[in-house]
Amino acid sequence: GKPLGPPLVVMLPLLRFFMVAGEPAISEMTFSWYGFRFKGPENERAFQDREQRSARTVAIGFTTIFMLGSLVAACGNLYHAHYWTYYAPYITQSAVAALMLCLILMCHKRIIRPALAVFVVLNCGLALWGVHHFTKISYDELFTDPVRSQQMRGSEEYILQMAASSNLNAATGILFFNFSVFGYTGFGKQEAIATVLGSVLITVYILTDSLITPAVAYSKGATLIIFGTFVPPLCSTVTSLLRREYFFAQLMSEKGLHASNKADSILNHTLKNTMADAAGEIELFIEAQPNPTSQEYAPLKQSMAALHRGMRWCQHRQVYLNLAYGNYQVTKRAICLMQFMSELTSGRKLQTTFSPLRLFQTCAFTVDPILLGLILDNTIANAYKHGHSVNPDVECFIMPGSGSNVIVQ
C-alpha cells in the first residue's frame, strides 16, 4: 500500500547499489532472513569478534541516552506535578535503562547484543504504554471536568484522535531511534526476533486499545509499524553490509600484505644465496689464476665486493620493513668510521678523505650503523647515477662538525 511504497522505493535500489559496489565481498556471503553472513566460518567468527568489541560502547551510549532522556522529559513536564502517576512511564523507562546499563557494564561481551535486543523490545512496550498512558491522561483532563466537558461537547472523538495521533507520532520517533541501534551493533538472529516482536506488539496494541480510533489506527498505526520497526532494520542491514564489505577489504589487504611479505622474504633469501654463489665463483676463479694479485682482476674483485655488500643489505630486510611501517627504533653503538666507510664503499671507485685523519683513526663515534649505512649508500648511489655518465669521479669528505657531530660531504 501507500505507506510501504516510499521506503522500499528508496531502500531497495540503495541496497542493490551497495551489493553491486561490493561484488567481491558479496560473493563471499550468504543472505538469510536475519541478514548477511560470510560463507567461511573463520571470516564470520573474526567479524563477529570485532562487532562484539564495539557493541559494548554502542550499548552503553544507547542505554545512557534513554535513561537521561526519560529524566529530562520528566523534568520538562513538571507542571503535571499534581498527577503523580503522570511520571510512571518516565520512571519505569529510566529504571529499566539503568538496570540494563549495569548489566552491560558487568556482563560478558557475548551477552551484550542479546541483552540489547531484549532492551529494545522492552523499550517498544514502554513506548506503547506511554502512548496509552498519556492519551488517557489527556482524555481525563478534558472530559472529567464538567466545565471543559460542556465546552468540548460534540468534538470528543476529534480531540481524542488528535491526542492519540500526537502521542503516536512521538512513539514513532522513539521507536525509530530504538530499532536504529541495530545499525551500529550488527543485525543478526536476536535483532531480527526483536524486530518481529516489536511489530507484533505494535499491531496488537493498535488493534486492542480502546483509545485508538480506527482512523488513527489506519493512518498513524501503519506509519508506526513501518517507520518504527521495518525501516530501521532495513537501514541496519545496509549498514551491516557496508561494515562487512569494509571488513572483507581489510581482511584481503592483510592477507595480501602477509603473502607479499612472505614472498619478499623468500625472494630476499634466494637473492642472498644467489649473490653468495656468484661471489664464491668469482673468488675461486681469481684464486685459480697464476697471478691473482694482478690489476687485471681488479674489476672482478670490485664485483665480488659489491656482491658481499648486497648480501649485507639483504640481512637488514626487517629494518626496511620497520622503516616502511614507521615503527623503527634507532639503535646506536660505537663504531670506527674509517672501517665502516671502507665496508660501505667496497666495490666502488670512490675516494674517501678523512680530515683530520688522526682523529678518525683513534676516535669511535656513536651512531646507528644500519640507518647511517642506508642513508650514505643511497647518497653515493645517487651521486654515481646523476654524475658524469662516463667518469663520475665521486669523492667523499668526512670532517668534524659542531660539538660531537660529523659532516659527511
From TrEMBL:
Segment forming the signal sequence: 1-22
Which keywords annotate this record?
Membrane, Signal, Transmembrane, Transmembrane helix
Note the coiled coil stretches, chain numbering.
none
| Keyword Transmembrane (UniProt) | yes
Q: Write down the superkingdom of origin.
A: Eukaryota
Q: Enumerate the transmembrane spans.
A: 14-36, 57-80, 86-107, 114-132, 158-181, 193-216, 222-242
Q: What protein is this chain from?
A: Uncharacterized protein
Q: Which organism is it from?
A: Eutreptiella gymnastica
Q: Lineage from the top down?
A: Eukaryota, Discoba, Euglenozoa, Euglenida, Spirocuta
